[in-house]
């Protein structure tokens, strides 16, 4: 799995964030990464190899996955400069066992893009690979698109 290093990092940091976790836990985790030398070095290495968009998007995904939470409401980051915004994890995750094949994810992405093209920024095209990966993981298209557009990259 290409994002295993991201998952490992955010899970390690998540274990240190005070509980109970708030709906702003993604900001809390990225803030902790930003202020710890080892975690920051690991984050920077991941960004160098995967790209900041991939690391931030998948970081948020793996945090939400670990806590079995979801959220569509994007808010600006207050605690961390590593991310510009994040999803408030304010709802239980919708269980998904649907893993999509790449061809199905590509078709779903194209369909969503066509339906929302007028509302999406042009930079969405830069994140095609990440959107496809998120769709293959089972995320609904609106969450996959929102994740890459609000990652702070």
What is this structure's SSE topology?
Elements (H helix, E strand, L loop, with lengths): L3 H11 L10 H10 L2 H14 L1 H16 L1 E2 L3 E3 L8 E3 L3 E2 L9 H15 L11 H9 L4 H9 L4
Antiparallel strand pairs: 1-4, 2-3
Helix pairs in contact: 1-3, 1-4, 3-4, 5-6, 6-7
Would you kindly provide a written description of the structure presented here, covering whatever features stand out?
- By secondary structure, the chain is mainly alpha-helical.
- The protein has one domain (4-149).
- The protein is built from 7 helices and 4 strands; from the N terminus they run H-H-H-H-E-E-E-E-H-H-H.
- The chain has helices at residues 4-14, 25-34, 37-50, 52-67, 102-116, 128-136, 141-149; strands at residues 69-70, 74-76, 85-87, 91-92.
- The strands form 2 sheets. The chain has a two-stranded antiparallel ribbon with strand order 1-4.
- Strand 2 and strand 3 (85-87) form a beta hairpin.
- The chain is globular.
- 33% of the residues are buried.
Q: Round the mean pLDDT to the nearest integer and report it.
A: 90
Shape: globular
**Distance separating the two termini:** 22 Å
Strand order of the largest sheet: 1-4
Q: Count the helices. How many?
A: 7
Number of strands: 4
Low-confidence stretches: none
Query: How big is the Rg?
Result: 15 Å
Q: What summary fits the major beta sheet?
A: 2 strands, antiparallel
**How many separate structural domains?**
1
DSSP strand content: 5-15%
Please trace the helix and strand order, writing H or E for each element: HHHHEEEEHHH
């Amino acid at each position: 799995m290409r994002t295993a290093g991201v998952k490992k990092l955010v899970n390690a940091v998540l274990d240190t964030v005070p509980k109970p976790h708030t709906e702003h836990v993604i900001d809390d985790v990225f803030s902790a990464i930003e202020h710890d030398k080892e975690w920051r070095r690991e984050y920077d290495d991941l960004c160098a190899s995967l790209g900041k968009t991939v690391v931030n998007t998948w970081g948020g995904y793996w945090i939400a996955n670990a806590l079995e939470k979801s959220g569509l409401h994007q808010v600006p980051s207050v605690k961390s400069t590593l991310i510009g915004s994040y999803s408030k994890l304010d709802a239980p995750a919708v269980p998904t066992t649907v893993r999509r094949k790449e061809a199905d994810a590509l078709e779903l992405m194209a369909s969503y893009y066509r339906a929302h093209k007028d509302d999406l920024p042009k930079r969405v095209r830069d994140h095609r690979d990440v959107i496809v990966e998120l769709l293959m993981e089972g995320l609904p298209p609106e969450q996959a698109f929102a994740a890459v557009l609000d990652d702070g990259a």
